[in-house]
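Slides due. Your pick:
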Amino acid sequence: MNVVFTLLVLISVLVAGWVGSPAHLARQEGTEVGVELEAGSPVKVGGKVRVDARGVEYPGVVVAVTAAVGDAQPTARVVSMSPDGPVSVRFDEEHRMKLVGDAAMDQAKKSVELAIGLIGMMTLFLGLMKVIEAGGGLDLIATAIRPFMVWLFPDVPSKHPAMGAMVMNIAANMLGLGNAATPFGIKAMQELDTLNRDKGTATNAMVLFLAINTTGLAVLPTGMMAVRAALGSHNPASIFPTTIAASHVTTLVAVLIAKGLSRLFPGGASEPVEREPLTWADFVPFSLFTTGLLGVCAIVGVYEQATFYIMPLLIGGMIAFGLIRKVKVYESLVEGARDGFASATKIIPYVVAILVAVGMFRASGAMSVLVSALAIPAKLLAIPPEVLPLAILRPLSGSGAFALASDLTRTYGPDSYIGNLAGTMQGTTETTFYVLAVYFGSVGVKKYRHAVVVGLLSEFFGILAAVFFVRWLIGGP
């Protein structure tokens, strides 16, 4: 992550300086658009304006200024004019650099606000997790899914609390609970760290767990379905099967990549594990658990209003479980809530660092430069150029990617190929760098090993899977 952070910041500064250089501005004659300016007047990037001097018009003297842009439109200024040739234009370099500087300060503020916003959610759900843990719930969950998790995480004891916490996190993501899954994931990471023999370095189990999270494993893309419905889609749930198929294929690929690359990146040793052999009886609770989870997903998928019941029933069910198991619910909740508050404040430095770097990268115009560079390779892979900004932004900014996916859906229509693809991509991939910063930051991991590579490769295959399944199941060019 040290390399990623450094590159994002340095590239942002270099690109901002390049975009702001006079050599980057294209000057050409064009058609008159009826706007008359004097020397020193601002010129909007990408626009064409007619220029006059001291009230004397020069027909046909028009300037067109072009530059790679990110989230904001920079300006240029007319510095000289001649009736015999094009107008000389100078880009306001301080303006672009100002955007980058403002973005750094703004993202530093917003990242702290984001962490503060997570405090309430993490305090509540880590408190509820303590109730489940005190009642032996994590052991029960770990037993229920033992056959699957034993194969997936051979370095983790089958009845370790980390198993149950990871399942809670994965299940919450599959049900589309959003930030409610984060406390479960942090709890899982903290439990995995108890097995870590090299503190500060990610273990294979940690990297694999992060890989599953960065694939956006989901069966209920509730956010984009709501956007599609609001925009008048004839079938808001049309991205339901494409998201399921693409996210599950992407998760499988991520698991294979994580396991394969673990041999190339030394370190990350866990405590040795002794296992009991599996029997057929071990598969009975696993089958019941899987059937129940898929049943809930199917009900929610068919009955849209059923999504309103998930959160209240989840909270009520965890409290009821504690009562049945004779747990002192309030005391356990408060004890776990303290851990949630401490975890939320601990991740602030990591979140600030990565979001500041991402904000500078977007404001510098580097995003558009990267989109232009990837246009030809993307075309060879059948990825429409319209969704390239979304593909690049998704690993960097969750809120930004959601806003862009919503805008693409609105612009091209919710039932168009681009609209369906944007919705599927949003549900198939995840904000890789944010997930890495939050989860690894919660346990003080600084050496990520192959986690970043696995996350980005998973994002790439997620995009390809989304394109394939949208074209196959819905149709496209």
Summary: The radius of gyration is 26 Å. Residues 21-40, 42-81, 83-94 have pLDDT under 50 and may be disordered. The longest strand covers residues 56-64.
